[in-house]
Amino acid sequence: MRIILFGPPGVGKGTQAKLLSEELGIPHISTGDMLRAAVTEGTELGKKAKATMDSGSLVPDDVMIGIVREVLTSPRVANGFLLDGFPRTVAQAQALASLFDELQIKNYKVIDFCVNDAEIIRRLSARVMCVNDGKIFNKLTDAVTLNSPCPECGGKLIQRIDDAEETVRKRLAIYHTTTEPVLDFYRKKGVAVQVDGMAPIETVNQEIKQLVGA
Ligand code: AMP
After folding, report:
1. Per-residue pLDDT tens for 23-61?
2. Which of 35, 157, 182, 206 is the most exposed place for a label (fewest CB within 10 A)?
3. Nearest atom, ligand 1, residue 88 CA
């Protein structure tokens, strides 16, 4: 099963990807998580990407396409994948389409999460991340504060630099101008389906499984 989770930051793609990854037994490929791991490890990629990510801008297409090509040609995705955070530009979508042709991947679905901007800002301002294991929690739905330890590993919780309100507004603006047009690309291919990202986590999860026939 091959699924692309599409939508603005903070819409719940990561949360659903984690649930579906366990339920469907396919890997969660998050380009944001991969970049953050590269920053933590201090690799060349991480050093180059950090300032761009912190400012809420997009990492260049050629870099992202290279990263995704490496993952999608590896054996770990032989039974499928959940792609989260890619593609974010029409150029990335075109490159992914060529890669799918090359790998003879014909069946896939794009799940478009709909949530309004005000709710995104509300959710992201309340989001915290564990510095130790990168797990995401939310002050609105999980019993956490910036001063409490990570409920899973006891690590320190912080607000992601790019979740500061001004940066979130910039990320949303980039989403609307640069990423949203990707949806037309997939609508024309007839592979895009919508879910209501405002619904409870469990409802969204069931809806996605129904849409992908799981
Ligand atoms: P995310 O965790 O998906 O919100 O990604 C965090 C940041 O990583 C984004 O704001 C971008 O700076 C960068 N990033 C992740 N995926 C992509 C992508 N497909 N294209 C460009 N930049 C990306």
Report:
1. 999 999 999 999 999 999 999 999 999 999 999 999 999
2. 206
3. 19
Q: How far is CA 79 from the centre of its chain?
A: 20
To the query of whether residue 160 is one of the catalytic residues in this protein, the response is yes
Q: The tokens 């091959």 sit on which residue?
A: 2
Ligand 1 pocket check for 58: Cβ under 6 Å: yes
* Residue 15, C-beta contacts closer than 8 angstroms, at least 6 positions apart: 136, 201
**168 in Cβ contact with 145 (< 8 Å):** no
122 is catalytic: no
Q: What's the predicted TM-score (pTM) here? A: 0.93
199-204: long-range contacts at Cβ-Cβ below 8 A with a sequence spacing of 24 or more?
201/12, 201/15, 201/16, 201/19, 204/12, 204/16, 204/113
